[in-house]
Write a structure and sequence with these properties.
219 residues, Rossmann fold, 44% helix, globular, 2 domains, 6 strands, alpha/beta
Length: 219
């Protein structure tokens, strides 16, 4: 029998909130202003990473690099104008609520800055039940995703072993981070697996699938 998690660790962008299309739009439009054309594959490579790490990567892809601060000065206003439209991902609120109702510890493990998270979640008060938070600009964070540091820091602050945690991700960088930290990892993906309890990481098409598993393991 699979034991319930001691803690659930949640990514934010693309996992709890459907923000990734807007971030991608911002990077694509910003790059275009400097003669760059980003492919869908390149945009996927940016998912889950910290803002300045993404900017550095996009700058490297430009025909003539212009510097990450110049790039962010164009990209950020585009994204901020779009983010208030971002809805919750299907099943996200129910999953977080279940953890709250059953006393399962939670943490937000995001590459976004503290300020960015406050802005993105302002229309989603249910996210406030996740009190422990690892931000991309956390002063105690040694490195961002795909490094295991974010998830290791979250487990340390919750005073739990990473192997007793379920981590929820949607990006390759986030998945690599959580797996390397030793968590049980669920990846939101269009390619689900037949037996979600025997795979790590496990790909699921919807967070509702994970909620069902959590309900079953929590009794």
């Amino acid at each position: 029998m699979t034991l319930p998690p001691v803690a659930c660790l949640f990514d934010l962008d693309g996992l709890l909130l459907d923000t990734e299309p807007f971030h991608g739009m911002g990077w694509r439009q910003a790059a275009a202003q400097f003669g760059g054309e980003l492919s869908d594959e390149q945009l996927l490579q940016l998912r889950g990473r910290r803002r300045r790490d993404c900017a550095q990567q996009v700058d490297d892809w430009l025909p003539t690099p212009i510097g990450i601060d110049v790039l962010l000065a164009v990209q950020q206003p585009i994204v901020r104008a779009l983010l208030p439209q971002a809805p919750a991902m299907p099943g996200a609120e129910g999953l977080v609520q279940h953890c709250w109702d059953h006393g399962i510890k939670t943490a937000l493990v995001t590459s976004s800055s503290r300020e960015a998270v406050a802005f993105k979640t302002s229309h989603h008060p249910w996210v406030e039940s996740i009190k422990e938070r690892i931000y991309g600009d956390d002063p105690q964070l040694a490195a961002g995703k795909p490094d295991p540091a974010p998830y290791l820091l979250a487990a340390k602050r919750l005073n739990v072993d990473p192997s007793d945690c379920w981590a929820f991700e949607d990006s390759n960088a986030g998945m690599q981070s959580a797996v390397a930290a030793g968590c049980r990892v669920w990846v939101l993906s269009n390619e689900s697996q037949n037996d979600p309890l025997t795979q790590n990481p496990c790909r699921v098409e919807s967070l509702e699938v994970v909620l069902d598993q959590l309900v079953n393991t929590s009794g």
